[in-house]
Task: inverse folding
């Protein structure tokens, strides 16, 4: 006579280990993920994060790449477990539309700065501007501007700049995929740019102005894409704030849609 196999203990199918339970809960949390925001001018990236956090009473909020206050466009907001994607998103390529203004150099290399000098740029031709843009395609070393969030001995460079200090900055390798002149009406050159992370668009403009001998600064900038995320799918900040929190949850891209587990 063959003995029957020993009975296996009956397990409660609804009971899971604490770790598995937590993972399941995280995956179904509507406020874990990515929110695409169309940042208005005049706001820092931190301002947008703080406004969303306080308005919707969210505990964990971050962003995937800084935009200068004067700039508009795509800002990737990271919520809950989505904050773990910060480095991954910041490491992706960026696309911009902007306007470079010739003849005026500023201390911040953009329209928010103090004018350092003005020169006549009426003699500069479209071909000259286009040539300077083309020479900057590919790999190059770029020295970050003093007015930036990069830290020197733990202190942001922009704070040192405000105190009148200028320190040596280490040049960084960047890559310009495309730098296209879309329109040129002196003194403004409208352009499209696709580049790697860490590229300072205002520094590109200032360098071109210096090369042309007339000075230049970044007059307008709009970030249109980060990786495969486009500003066309983003919502203006004021519209998001006017919506109920339930609708905010519907606009969040879940983590698994961006980075499958």
Result:
């Amino acid at each position: 006579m063959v003995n029957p196999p020993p009975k296996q203990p009956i397990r409660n199918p609804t009971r899971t280990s604490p770790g598995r339970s937590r993972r399941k809960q995280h995956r179904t949390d509507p406020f874990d993920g990515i929110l695409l925001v169309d940042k208005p001018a005049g706001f820092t990236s931190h301002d947008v994060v703080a406004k969303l956090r306080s308005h919707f009473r969210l505990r964990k909020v971050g962003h995937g790449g800084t935009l200068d206050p004067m700039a508009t466009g795509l800002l990737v907001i990271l919520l809950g477990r989505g904050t773990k994607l910060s480095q991954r998103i910041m490491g992706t390529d960026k696309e911009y539309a902007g306007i470079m203004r010739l003849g005026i150099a500023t201390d911040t290399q953009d329209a928010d700065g103090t004018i350092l000098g003005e020169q006549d740029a009426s003699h500069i031709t479209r071909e000259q501007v286009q040539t300077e843009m083309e020479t900057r395609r590919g790999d190059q070393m770029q020295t970050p501007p003093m007015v930036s969030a990069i830290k020197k001995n733990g202190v942001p460079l922009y704070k040192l700049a405000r105190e009148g200090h200028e320190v040596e900055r280490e040049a960084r390798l960047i890559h310009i995929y495309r730098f296209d002149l879309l329109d040129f009406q002196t003194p403004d050159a409208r352009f499209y740019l696709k580049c790697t992370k860490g590229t300072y668009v205002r520094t590109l403009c200032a360098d071109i102005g210096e090369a042309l001998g007339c000075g230049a600064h970044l007059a307008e900038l709009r970030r249109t894409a980060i990786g495969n995320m486009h500003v066309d799918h983003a919502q203006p900040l004021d519209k998001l704030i006017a919506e109920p929190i339930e609708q905010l949850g519907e606009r969040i891209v879940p983590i698994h849609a961006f980075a499958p587990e």
The two ends are 49 Å apart (CA to CA). The CA atoms of residues 45 and 149 lie 12 Å apart. The chain has two domains: 32-91+229-258, 94-226. The first strand starts at residue 33 and ends at 39.
